[in-house]
Design brief:
By secondary structure, the protein is mainly α. 81% of the residues lie in helices and 0% in strands. The two termini are 25 Å apart.
Length: 417
């Protein structure tokens, strides 16, 4: 297995957390097991606040982590550390008793931060394992095989909840708890492969000490980086667009099952819809990698935003599990594409030798944006008592994202592919 394949394989492993935990079982288990007897408006509010808080932590700490990674040239060690936090926290979810919603959501936030922080360093390894001409293709492969890996385990996990006795489990509750353990194992498997196969050439300890900046000094340097970004209008407008639209993407992904439960859909239908998202997402992410060689990445991103807006408009009319599966298929069509194209497009724009620092900033944008989306859904739902209006409010983020994306260069020849 070469370095590109090992890099992609980490996505194959860690995406199980995104699929089984974030999108699938945590919202259901949080609502029905850890918050049993609580209204859907309150559980939605709690979940939205928790995700917003996790996003705030990422916004606060991501620049420091990214800067330190650039200084040490040891991104892989940072990735391993944060992934380990996420893996052990995910395993710990299997041990939390019924009714302990505060404890459950605290461990979930810890796992979520470990997952998202590891992606800062994972993304920053892309220029190390691939040539510029390969960025779009390899980035798309990462998301595509992430859908495949996460989808395969999720299918197994859903089967366990539907037929727990077949797997030697007592009931569906125990099956979900065991699923959290299986995600931790799956994620660890991807981490081990990346650790063994992706190589770095760290600078000496003397150089690290000489270059290392303190906590406050790091943020001062990040402020200077931001000033430089503002002078590079193409990058600045892209990051502003990304701030809005990736917030909408993450919010749809993390709140979709909670939304389905809130409007009275069957849990089994929701799980089937998530499986469909993975099945559609795998080939579509690869296909977007192909399309990026034929069409402008900016235009492809705009197409994805149009589809997402249409999905949200459609969501307010959902009445059956079949309706939700139609929605899930359209999300799967564009979700991997918008993530992969955003990552690879940004990779082309950043200065050489500063990938972790700039990807730290890239992830600040994404993570700080994810503060707004879940809170928007949570409070609109709570105030209106209507989950449909809560989810529909995310359309505003896609509209703003498209507006600023239109301000970036329309010709992909402006960057080197």
């Amino acid at each position: 297995m070469n370095q590109k394949q090992a890099w992609v394989f980490y996505d194959f492993g860690n995406s199980a957390f995104a699929t089984t935990v974030i999108a699938g079982f945590f919202p259901v288990f949080f609502k029905q097991f850890w918050s049993e007897g609580v209204s859907s408006e309150i559980t939605t509010l709690r979940l939205g606040i928790a995700l917003g808080f996790a996003g705030f932590l990422m916004a606060l700490l991501a620049p420091f982590w990214g800067r330190k990674s650039d200084e040490s040239k040891n991104r892989k060690s940072w990735l391993i550390s944060f992934a380990s936090v996420g893996i052990f926290s995910t395993a710990a979810l299997s041990l939390i008793p019924q009714g302990q919603w505060a404890f459950a959501i605290s461990i979930y936030v810890l796992a979520y931060v470990g997952f998202e922080a590891s992606l800062i360093f994972y993304d920053s390894l892309l220029p190390l394992v691939a040539k510029p001409v390969e960025f779009n293709r390899v980035s798309s492969q990462g998301y595509a095989y992430g859908y495949l890996g996460g989808g395969l385990l999720f299918i197994l996990n859903v089967a366990m909840t539907l037929k727990p006795e077949f797997f030697g489990l007592k009931d569906a509750t125990q099956a979900v708890q065991f699923s959290f353990l299986s995600v931790a194992f799956w994620w660890a498997m991807g981490l081990v492969v990346l650790s063994l196969r992706v190589k770095e050439n760290p600078i000496s300890a003397t150089e690290v000490v000489k270059k290392s900046a303190g906590f406050l000094a790091t943020y001062w340097e990040i402020l200077n980086t931001f000033k430089k970004l503002m002078e590079q209008k193409n990058i600045f407008y892209f990051l502003l667009a990304y701030w809005f639209f990736i917030d909408g993407v993450y919010t749809v992904f993390t709140m979709a099952v909670n939304y389905g439960l809130s409007i009275g859909l069957n849990q089994e239908d929701l799980m089937k819809a998530l499986i469909l998202t993975q099945l559609v997402g795998f080939p579509s992410a690869l296909f977007f990698g192909y399309l990026s060689q034929k069409f402008s990445s900016r235009n492809l991103l705009l197409f994805c935003l149009v589809v997402y807006s249409g999905v949200l408009l459609y969501s307010v009319q959902i009445k059956t599990g079949t309706d939700f599966m139609v929605l899930a298929s359209f999300v799967g069509l564009v979700q991997g594409g918008i993530q992969a194209l955003s990552r690879s497009y940004f990779t082309h724009l950043i200065p050489a030798g500063h990938s972790a620092e700039y990807f730290g900033f890239f992830n600040i944008v994404g993570r700080s944006a994810s503060v707004v989306g879940p809170l928007l859904v949570a409070f609109v739902t709570y105030l209106t008592k209507d989950a449909r209006l809560g989810l529909l409010s995310i359309v505003l983020l896609f509209i703003l994202g498209a507006y600023f994306l239109l301000k970036t260069h329309s010709n992909d020849q402006s960057v080197t592919y």
